[in-house]
Design goal:
alpha+beta; Beta-lactamase; 3-stranded antiparallel β-sheet; two-stranded antiparallel ribbon
């Protein structure tokens, strides 16, 4: 994610390639449902294999805090569950960071 070109690629919700000499126009859509629906989400990768099931590698940022996580072997009966799980993990992680920052701030004033 430190590479700008990579970050810009995994953060795209779609990409359109115009038709040119020898090829048709193509549009690719990102299947990461966190993009555009979870504040601060900026990628990274969805996937599926028989061994790992439905997966999601994700990142989100709030202020200066950045969280990265992964969901592996999510349910096959509800492929969207990996996004629900990721939201829950991000919400928990950001709440822990906020609580920790608040405690540190109070302790510094004592």
């Amino acid at each position: 994610m430190a590479l700008g070109a990579f970050r810009a690629t995994v953060d795209r919700r779609s990409y359109h390639l115009a038709g040119r000499n020898g090829h048709h126009a193509y549009t690719w859509r990102n299947t990461n449902l966190l993009l555009g629906s979870y504040a601060g989400a900026d990628g990274i990768k969805t996937g599926f294999t028989l061994a790992a099931g439905y997966c999601l590698l994700f990142e989100a940022q709030r202020g200066t805090s950045v969280l990265v996580g992964v969901v592996l072997h999510s349910t096959a009966t509800r492929p969207g569950a990996r996004f629900t799980d990721a939201r829950r993990m991000l919400n928990w992680g950001f709440s822990v960071l906020a609580t920790s920052a608040a405690l540190t701030s109070r302790l510094g004033k004592a």
